């Protein structure tokens, strides 16, 4: 009744026919109608938002459960020698399952700043070495650096002066409690293992290193028979003013193996031959630190995975080092070593 009066009559018509009291009634009825309309819209809007949030959460949980299942297990597995498979990546995956993994499981859609296509560039075949730009999005790097601020750091070098000269930087590790609970770290660890084709249970703790001005790590191997690290992933979390490159003295900048006398490990996985000439010279293979960039390196020869691990099975061409950082900006690195053996 109120609605039809308010809709049909103009207040001036009412004023002429029925006087002021009727006009007030018409206006009151209209206000009531307007308020009712606003409440109805607000209620329906909230219900719709609630329903979408519920369905989104449900789909997200179902997707997460599906994601850690079959596809991830297949990608991060020792089905073949890991370096004989093309690293998994979101750019041009080999199968529909791998494509789906990149699209739905890798968490890219959660971060608006993450490129959809991340394609590796092979830098060398001996050692097998790849670089990925934008492996981590800027917001992922920022999330990691925020977590890093709560960690306790210790000096990476040993106490005596020789070792401080060999390796100077600050190191910490994400304890399993954080690495397994934090969704960003978990997603990054999965991405690393899927990319390298190594099961999660073979992964060591995520390491974080800060190199300040002048800090470096002389030439070394990551693997030895006691610590058979089949793959290493180095993720750069910052840009630097200069220096700080990771260098491979056995390879020229185009990836080919260098001829002539090469530095050899003399002390287990280390060599005392200085790294600086390789840092200074343009001809050697180097990767510059760049926020979000990652390097994947395979350290063992193929037969190491199937037989007993001996020193000869460590690929000595994977000798590498971290050149001194120049300038005030620190080089931050996140590192994951993946072993041939399960650590579980
Ligand atoms: O920081 C880098 O560039 C390399 C790090 C490295 O080789 C290591 O920590 O084993």
Task: Kindly describe this structure.
This protein folds into two domains: 2-56; 68-339, q2cbj1_9rhob like domain (Jelly Rolls, Sandwich), CATH 2.60.120. Helix 2 (11-18) packs antiparallel against helix 3 (20-67). 37% of the residues lie in helices and 20% in strands. The chain is elongated. The termini are far apart. Strands 1-2-12-8-15-6-5-3 form an eight-stranded antiparallel sheet, covered by helices on one side. It has eleven helices and 15 strands. It is of the alpha+beta class. It binds 2-oxoglutaric acid.
What's this model, at a glance?
The protein has 11 helices and 15 strands. By secondary structure, the protein is α+β, with helices and mostly antiparallel strands.
Mind telling me which CATH architecture of the largest domain this is? Sandwich
Order of helices and strands: HHHHHEEHEHEEHHEEEEEHEEHEEE
CATH H-level name of the largest domain... which superfamily? q2cbj1_9rhob like domain
User: Main sheet?
Assistant: 8 strands, antiparallel
Radius of gyration: 30 Å
CATH topology of the largest domain: Jelly Rolls
Question: How many domains make up the coordinates?
Answer: 2
**Tally the helices: what do you get?**
11
Content-based structural category: alpha+beta
What is the percentage of strand-forming residues? 15-25%
The backbone outline, from C-alpha atoms, is elongated
Could you say which small molecules are bound to this protein? 2-oxoglutaric acid
E-strand count: 15
Major beta sheet, strand line-up: 1-2-12-8-15-6-5-3
In terms of quaternary structure, what is this? Answer: single chain
């Amino acid at each position: 009744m109120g609605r039809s009066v308010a809709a049909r009559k103009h207040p001036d018509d009412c004023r002429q026919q029925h006087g002021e009291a009727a006009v007030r009634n018409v206006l009151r009825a209209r206000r009531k109608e307007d308020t009712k309309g606003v409440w109805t819209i607000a209620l329906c809007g909230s219900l719709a938002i609630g329903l979408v949030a519920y369905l989104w959460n449900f789909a997200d949980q179902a997707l997460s459960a599906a994601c850690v299942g079959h596809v991830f297990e297949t990608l991060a597995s020792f089905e073949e020698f890991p370096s004989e498979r093309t690293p998994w990546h979101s750019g041009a995956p080999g199968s529909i399952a791998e494509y789906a993994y990149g699209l739905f499981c890798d968490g890219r859609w959660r971060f608006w700043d993450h490129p959809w296509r991340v394609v590796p560039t092979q830098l060398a075949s001996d050692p097998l070495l790849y670089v990925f730009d934008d492996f981590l999005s800027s917001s992922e790097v920022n999330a990691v650096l925020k977590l890093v601020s709560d960690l306790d750091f210790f000096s990476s070098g040993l106490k005596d002066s020789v070792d401080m000269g060999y390796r100077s930087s600050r190191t910490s590790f994400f304890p399993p409690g954080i690495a397994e609970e934090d969704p960003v770290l978990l997603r990054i660890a999965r991405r690393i293992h899927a990319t390298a084709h190594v099961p999660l249970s073979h992964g060591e703790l995520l390491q974080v290193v800060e190199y300040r001005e002048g800090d470096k790590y002389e030439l070394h191997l990551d693997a030895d028979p006691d610590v058979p690290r089949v793959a290493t992933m180095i993720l750069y979390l910052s840009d630097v003013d200069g220096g700080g490159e990771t260098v491979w003295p056995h390879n020229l900048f185009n990836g080919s193996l260098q001829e002539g006398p090469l530095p050899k490990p003399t002390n287990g996985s280390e060599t005392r031959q200085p790294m600086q000439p390789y840092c200074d010279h343009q001809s050697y293979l180097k990767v510059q630190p760049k926020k979000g960039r990652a390097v994947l390196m395979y350290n063992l020869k193929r037969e190491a995975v199937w037989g007993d691990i001996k020193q000869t099975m460590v690929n000595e061409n994977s000798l590498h080092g971290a050149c001194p950082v120049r300038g005030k900006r620190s080089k931050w690195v996140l590192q994951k070593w993946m072993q041939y053996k399960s650590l579980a």
